[in-house]
Amino acid sequence: MSATARPSEDDVPDQPASRFVDVAWNGRQDHIEYVYVGPEGRGLPLLVFLHEGLGSVTMWKDFPERLCQAAGCRGLVFSRWGYGESTPRALHERWPVDFMHHQALGFLPAFLAALGIDTAADPPWLYGHSDGGSIALIYAANYPERVAGLVVAAPHIFVEDMTVRSIEQARDGYVTTSLRSKLARYHRDPDSAFWGWNDVWLDPAFRRWNIEGLLPLVRCPTLAVQGLDDEYGTMAQIDGIARAAARCDTLKLEDCGHSPHRDQPARLCAAVADFIARHPHPLPDTLTQIRA
After folding, report:
1. Which of 14, 89, 219, 230 could disulfide-pair with 192, CB 3.0 to 4.6 Å?
2. How many Cβ atoms from other residues are within 10 Å of residue 289's Cβ?
3. Are the C-beta atoms of residues 267 and 62 closer than 8 Å to each other?
4. Which UniProt keywords apply (predicted)?
5. pLDDT tens-place string over residues 25-59
6. Which among 18, 14, 17, 16 has a CA at the least distance from the CA of 33?
7. How many domains does the chain contain in total?
8. Which domain holds residue 108?
9. For 180-218, what is each residue's pLDDT tens digit?
10. What is the spatial distance between Cα 243 and Cα 157, in angstroms, rounded to a whole number?
11. Is the pLDDT confidence value at 166 over 60?
């Protein structure tokens, strides 16, 4: 969700060329940008990256590649509808208050199916940042057999006053500073990405958004990560996940704001790689035998 990215002009490393897939969902069809990163090989777990509210494939920079190499995972990175090079949000189209439920329950299953990923036979891991973390939690609560595990960094389970204040500041910055031109480096239509996110989070009805009731349904191994200097949320977010979810560890990072993958990438990669290693991923053939 963060609007705090302040990239320099030369800090975007080389990344694989984007691919595109058409995804039919919720009565619409979107052209979705994606890339595969990391090592290849049958039997390696798949780690799907769900970006923040202003993220995209390129906004991640080289973090997915670094993490997948450290964890021995295949990685799938994509830009949700409205972001990056994916189909932009239509002018004047406003997202509903439950947009993250739409993304988790409608779009994400359709996207994975469009790529031929059989989540029933070979459940992936999900790495979600901010809004992406919330989407990952909603998905895991509703499709517990279709996810191997979660890593959620700076996720939201309810709306805090400090979050709204920071988003109001982001709105002011988008209008009065160079934030729009910086975001244009990561989105074909920066207005699509920014106002889609900003408008819904500042909708008064969104103050009642809350997914705490879903958390007891999250049964997979979960690592909840947050920076102690997060400007968009307090530790109540990941502490709430740890209390409610069945198998949750927490990681609280010093000298770290809302984007742990940017502020503490080495520590984060090491912790996530260790967490995934402690929860081994069975081969697809083994899963089939277990379920038979």
Report:
1. 89
2. 10
3. no
4. Hydrolase
5. 999 999 999 999 999 887 899 999 999 999 999 99
6. 18
7. 1
8. 19-291
9. 999 999 999 999 999 999 999 999 999 999 999 999 999
10. 12
11. yes
